[in-house]
Amino acid sequence: MADRLKRHVDLSVGEISFLESLVARPSRFVRGQIIQAAGEPAQQAFVLIDGWAMTFTDYADGSRQIRRVHFPGDLLAMPSMAMARHVENIEAITDVVVAPFQRGLLAKVFREHPRLAAIQFMYAQEERITYGDRLSAIGRLCAKARIAFLLMDVLTRLRAADSSIGCAFEMHLTREQMSEVTGMTPVHASRMWSELISEGAVSCDKRIVTIHDEPRLVALSGFANRATELDFSWLPS
Amino acid sequence: MADRLKRHVDLSVGEISFLESLVARPSRFVRGQIIQAAGEPAQQAFVLIDGWAMTFTDYADGSRQIRRVHFPGDLLAMPSMAMARHVENIEAITDVVVAPFQRGLLAKVFREHPRLAAIQFMYAQEERITYGDRLSAIGRLCAKARIAFLLMDVLTRLRAADSSIGCAFEMHLTREQMSEVTGMTPVHASRMWSELISEGAVSCDKRIVTIHDEPRLVALSGFANRATELDFSWLPS
DNA sequence: CGTCGAGTTGACATAATTCAAGTAAGGTGG
DNA sequence: CCACCTTACTTGAATTATGTCAACTCGACG
Q1: Looking at residue A158, which CATH number applies to its domain?
Q2: What pLDDT is recorded for position A149?
Q3: What is the mean pLDDT of chain A?
Q4: Is residue B177 part of a domain?
Q5: Same-domain status, A179 and A157
Q6: Which of B48, B80, B112 is the last residue of a domain?
């Protein structure tokens, strides 16, 4: 958390200690466990400290749409803080460590840490953009390009947290989960994945995915890394 | 703007006068005109005062995805305020009146009007939810259900601004625009539209759309009105 | 009166889904 | 260590939803 912000802004001592207080009480969930169920009163959000998680909603026919895949450093359930009840489910993709914090703390941020509030506002706006990017990808791209988009999205976000990542990473999503992110069936996701491999754009050994032709994936999917376009210059001092 | 907020929160004199200063300099755009082009420096956002507008992005093959349809009272281009440059295009669907305001004002909001800042934060989070809803709709629903979703979305949001709206409204989107919102071709949007009419769920005379079977559209699309689920109780005083 | 933008319709092509069968890897108990 | 599950994944064949292309209608407008 604090690490991520420090890349962009000089934090004060007070700001840093506040952020550290957020992650004081970590708790663990195992793979597949529900971290936060839709319908429950929206009293807390979480910092994802370690592992992968996902936000999704269920449909009556048994299918689900994964709205967002989360990586370490991400905040979970923030959108629901505006609502009386959680409207999305959050589940652990791998075993995870998360740190819950109470909604009441948000009021404190806006009163006492206006700059942190503004930064959270910015991240919320960035999310609106990237949600739009994913919406557009699902709406306009063919299935293969949607898989390419997903790969680029995961790769760039993992890189942002760990600059040592080159073109290989461990993929924790199953084919079914990939299909639930990209709006297709698991069978078709599997086929498109195979095509990307047979074209040489990607390869895969166990869970380790290697991206061989990043420009091709970008061209195919129109992916843009919005995190590099953020502008913190207007923040209050 | 101020009207919309006053429904939820008792605004102070200072807050109201600040909000009124935002809309002091309205300007006009005609149907089809670009209000804000992607790529330009992100120096201002807008209050949409009158008419319909849309946020969209273009694809290399000439197709476009409409990410959001905007109605009077909405803020335009807020997501881009987090970025160095606008990443989305905004176009007037009908003739519109908008009021531009400078990005620098946002810093002032966070410093001097923490509660307004918190409210804007909440709306941003609500947008993340509704973006997820639309993402899910495009990812999981069949074409007819996506059209139903669009109709419910438009109807609900128009109602929120004008409580006199029952089940009829003037639809300013062309078939092509509907298809660009819902991720399909204009031809197919036209067919699904016709099916909804022949089933009796909807009827249409000129641009006036009447919703006859709202429960059916909701059941078909899984639409939820998130605005009714907002909770302002945690706001700073 | 002709033109233009918007919408509709039919015939056909293609992308994606569905269903079903089968393989492979990892975990568990004997 | 092996036999047996379970879960994840792959592949083929048939079906369906959606896209594509082209022709045509209709009303608005100069």
Answers
A1: 1.10.10.10
A2: 98
A3: 92
A4: yes
A5: yes
A6: B112
A167 part of a folded domain:
yes
Q: Cβ B121–A140 below 8 Å, yes or no?
A: no
Indicate if A91 and A171 belong to the same structural domain: no
Residues of B in contact with A68 (CB under 8 A): 132
**DSSP output for chain B:** -HHHHHTTS---HHHHHHHHHHTSS-EEE-TT-EEE-TTSB--EEEEEEES-EEEEEE-TTS-EEEEEEE-TT-EESTGGGGBSB--SEEEESSSEEEEEEETHHHHHHHHH-HHHHHHHHHHHHHHHHHHHHHHHHHHHS-HHHHHHHHHHHHHHHHHHH-TT--SEEE----HHHHHHHHTS-HHHHHHHHHHHHHTTSEEEETTEEEES-HHHHHHHHT---GGGGB--TT---
Q: Which of residues 176-195 of A touch strand D (CB under 7 A)?
A: 176, 186-187, 190-191, 193-194
* Residue A157 clears pLDDT 70, i.e. is over it: yes
Structure confidence by residue, pLDDT tens digits, B59-89: 988 899 999 999 999 999 999 999 999 999 9
* pLDDT classification of A162: cutoffs 50, 70, 90: confident
Q: Rounded to two decimals, what is the model's pTM?
A: 0.93
Q: Are residues A174 and A211 in the same domain?
A: yes
Looking at the structure, do residues A65 and A153 belong to the same domain, yes or no?
no
| B100/B177 same-domain check | no
| B13-41 pLDDT tens trace | 888 888 888 888 899 999 999 999 999 99
Is some CB atom of chain B closer than 8 A to the CB atom of A226? yes
What proportion of chain A, given as a percentage, has pLDDT over 90? Answer: 75
The answer, for A34 touching chain B at a CB cutoff of 8 Å, is: no
Structural domain boundaries, residue B45: 2-112
Protein residues in reach of strand C (CB < 7 A): A 142-144, 183-185, 187-188, 191, 206; B 174-176, 186-187, 190-191, 193-194
Picking from A79, A112, A145, the residue at the C-terminal end of a domain is A112
